[in-house]
Design a protein that fits this description.
Layout: H1 6-16, H2 30-38, H3 41-66, H4 78-85, H5 102-114
Amino acid sequence: MSTIDPVVASIIDTHSHPNRDGSSPPSDDEADLLDSLENDPTLSTYREQRLQQLHEEFARAKHLRNQDHGQYREIKDEKTLMDIVNTGAELCAVHFFKPDFHRCGIMDGHLRKLAPLHTDT
């Protein structure tokens, strides 16, 4: 469950609740609310920080993909497996399977689908 950022929540609250003097809020119009959110200097700083964070996450994911993270590979020998596990990566998923076991084939299919979604492994 996601939560609303406290800065955004405070702006929405001040925009939608009655003023302290009892007068009505500026407007319930969504366009007015969006306009006030776009013109808020606090949110522009927040937006810039978030864009920088997204840029860093994208660069990190690209770097990990270039190092073969998030890929499903079948490894036949123990030395290659140990080389991969001992590369310093924090996470590695290993599935030992036997080709003639039906359930291993099912697990193999699931891992093939999941691998590209998880570049940290």
